[in-house]
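TL;DR need structure tokens for one chain.
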Amino acid sequence: QVQLVESGGGLVQAGDSLRLSCAASGRTFSNYVMTWFRQAPGKEREFVTAISRSGGTTSYADSVKGRFTISRDNAKNTMYLQMNSLKPEDTAVYYCAARTGVVVATPRSYNYWGQGTQVTVSS
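>> reply
TL;DR here they are.
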């Protein structure tokens, strides 16, 4: 198994930027497809972005495309989410998740989760 810990969340104003990190320990980090999900109060957990094992392929939800950038450093066992031009609708708890199979957008398909980090964007 792999253990995941998110960090970097906070309270910011619309238009500001944040950089989230997901630190992994345990099994070899490069074995896992890595994904960010988010969940706002009263809403289902939704897919945000994903990155392949090598970092060569990424995908983004339409709502964040052009504003968010996912990356990973396998030597440091860490995944990152750079969030620019933040909007109030980005407010949510952000979770990193991992699986050994292909990228899917369904949360229940992921085996490993962090505890989440809160991102709050005020207008």
